[in-house]
Amino acid sequence: KPDLLIDGTDNFKTRLLLHQYSVKRGIPLISGGTSPSEGQSVCCIPKQTSCMNCLIDIERLEKANGERRRGCAQTPEASVVISNMILGGVMASSVRRIVNGEKVENGIFKYVSKDPQRIGFISVGKACGCYKDSIFVNWVKEIYGKALRALVGRV
User: Fold this and answer.
1) Which pTM does this prediction carry?
2) Which uninterrupted H or E stretch holds 39?
């Protein structure tokens, strides 16, 4: 069983599968998606935050978009590089917080290049009950602590 899932895929079908696997197995999921001018990231931790479906309704998005949305390989745009860099940094920070046992806020991180504020966090408040039967044991530190120390600093 993986300790953590990190999702940067470019389609809703794969995101939905990762979400379902995360909820069923009680595994934390960090997911991020971008377009050329914006992006968002969610961090879903069993019994601490809401699941991806409760945060962004991934099931509805997958049904609405299905296979119609073209991935980055089919629609390459140079401007997506900035969005990817910002969201990649946010997701890496989420990994560090989880590994270090720090609190992760329940909500959605948003980046919109055309908005004057550009970066913001939409807080959701109380966690959902979708993980109620899942058990998350934070044993990443015990198993990988020494190896991660070199990658993310303090563990």
Assistant:
1) 0.75
2) strand 38-44
